[in-house]
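User: I'm putting together a teaching handout on how multi-component assemblies are represented. Below are the sequence lines for each component of a complex, exactly as they appear in our records. Could you produce the 3D structure of the whole assembly as structure tokens, so the students can see both representations side by side? Please keep the chain order the same as the input.
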Amino acid sequence: MTAAVETRILRYRPRQRLVHWLGVGTVLTLLVTGLALLWPPLSFIAWGGVGPTLHRVGAVLFMALPFAYALLNPRQTRELLVEIFTYDREDWAWLKHFPGYFLGHAAGLPPQGRLNAGQKLHHAGTFLAFITVSLSGLALWFLKGSLGATWLPVMAMLHDVSMLAVTVLFVGHVYFTFVYDALPAMTTGYVSPEYARLEHARWLEELTPAAPAVETPETDEPTEIVVQQA
Amino acid sequence: MGQNAILVDLGQCIGCQACIVACKTGRELAPGEAYIHIREDVRGRFPNLTGSFVHHRCFHCADAACVAVCPTGALSKVDGLTAVDLAKCSGCGYCVDACPYGIPEMVDGHVSKCTGCTDLTQEGQEPWCVQTCPSGALKLGPRESMLSLARERAALLAKRFTSAQVYGETQLGGLGALFVLPDEPLAFGLPEQPQVPTTITAWQRGVQPLTQGITGLSVLATALAFVFARREHHREKRALAAQAAQGEAGDDSGR
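Assistant: Of course. Below is the structure of the complete assembly, with chains in the same order as your input.
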């Protein structure tokens, strides 16, 4: 009798998953404690200064996390930054089909690499918003009382709009994760070949050693395919 | 209760600082903390000198920028005065930056400014400073009455000080602290027509509601689309699986 064989593909290593979930924790902390200063029904969280203290602790972790990752993984960080700001013809073609993808149709879309064009946009937007939300947040924190009536609202508006971008991107990220059953990639680190074929066909092709005319990428990103006895 | 106002008659102030002491004691302020600051101001050239006591205290603006920017409701308007609920203060310090008069300060991580003693006024009592003032320079009452009194006092003072006037009648929607000044406002460091920057209005009435709206909308839109999209995706996956199975069966039969 032959045992059933399940193939699964490594997508995120433990360190990447740890950074991701720490990031989720800090963003949620910042979001809830920040909303307390924006949305009156949540303002009780900020009373007495508990919320703002948590906000500052979350902010320090939020800002330190990418720097820590970049220090430990400089090459991957550089490659990621290049990747999220590089869009080829297939990416633009994929983006044209975004409304259909939003409504659950992934089949027949132009094949995507390790990150699809939507993920690239998400990461790029988060990266840019990270810079503006951090700078405006630092100004609101350390220049408190000396910003004046003109710069306070400028910095606060920049902070609000940046966090709006982070929030909308976060909501979209969660949405697509659950629509396309992508959560296991960040919990176990592995995805099924079906998922990879449908969502990241070009990446799967690059991972397969027998793939014709595909160069092995010089990267430390996960490239192993693990075959497991079920 | 209607709109109250505190009348500060600098023509009657003797600079005794009893109001400061009463305020600090009554409001149980921390050492070094004060809601009222008084300094003696001497103007002119000897021997033609004039002097007065300048009060630096909350002006209780009707269109209070501090209330507009306070994100937790710690600052609010109560019967025309700008009240403070310290338990609600988050210590964000927005009010410190927003106030066109530079009144609020941060002390021990919370806002420090005149509360108008609204806890006392709502019980029919007067604020500590008014109760204590020995020269009658401080009064509390309905704003219209205080305004009439202020005009009378200014007219009386004008016989001796030609620039005497009432300050606070129109500034920032009308102040809840009306000042009888023996001289031009600028002589007391008071702006003629202080302004709240339009950026504060844009922030409070434009960006903040927009931010809340778009955030809510994105959550709502994705929640509604989720049910449909997930069903569609699963249908698509089943179709692809069936297609693959058919292909495999075709391969097997072809062998």
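A couple of points students might notice: Chain B touches chain A through 52 residues (CB under 8 Å). The radius of gyration of chain B is 30 Å.
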